[in-house]
Amino acid sequence: MSWLDAQSHCRLYYTDLATVRDMKDLLRLRTAANGLTDLWTGLHLTSEHPNVWHWSQAALQYDEGESQWAVDQPDNDGNCVDSWVQDTWNDEHCDIVLNCSICYDEASSSPVMVSQSRDWLAAQQYCRSHYTDLVSGLDQYAQFLQTFPVRNASCWIGLSRDHWGWSDGSNSD
After folding, report:
1. CA 102/CA 111 separation, integer angstroms
2. CA distances from 62 to 18, 46, 66, 73, 109 (A)
3. Least CB-packed of 42, 81, 111, 145 within 10 Å?
């Protein structure tokens, strides 16, 4: 059965394909599957909004009019964003390893520069497990620029876009 067939079946007889938000949902799904190993969930690659940028901290909205893109950026080279040495943004492939990530620590209300080599997703996971998240929004970004005015490396920030979505329309983050 194809993904579309599974989605149609679930929408006809139930509500939709399963949306998995956390490990608890995944464990419930595995139990309900009763030993089946090949299952469809509602997560799928979508092209509905392929160029929508969003901040890693979901509560913050991205505003194109308040962006810091470098000249000729974004050039659709990638789906993740790094801050260049010149304090402007560059879209980059998310699997590129950079030597710097900018986390935000909500407890101290300050940015934290982490000088360890990571791709964007690993940087996001590190920031989320040790601080709050990657620096997100222009206020946090401006605070980062004030705190670390001199850098010699491009650093990951919390701006990205993806083409994944849940069939029920909820956010894939």
Report:
1. 7
2. 28, 20, 8, 16, 20
3. 145
pLDDT over 80 (residue 17): yes
Give the C-alpha separation, 42 to 45, whole Å.
Answer: 10
User: Residue 65 is encoded by which pair of tokens?
Assistant: 């009019």
At residue 4, the pLDDT reads 85
User: Cα dist. 36→17, 20, 31, 40, 166 in Å?
Assistant: 16, 17, 9, 11, 21
At residue 111, the pLDDT reads: 97
**Residue 87 and residue 157 in contact, taking contact as beta carbons nearer than 8 Å:** no
Q: What percent of the chain has pLDDT over 70?
A: 90
CB 15 within 8 A of CB 168: yes
Beta strands in 36-173 (DSSP E): 43-45, 54-55, 80-83, 89-92, 101-105, 110-114, 133-134, 155-160, 164-166
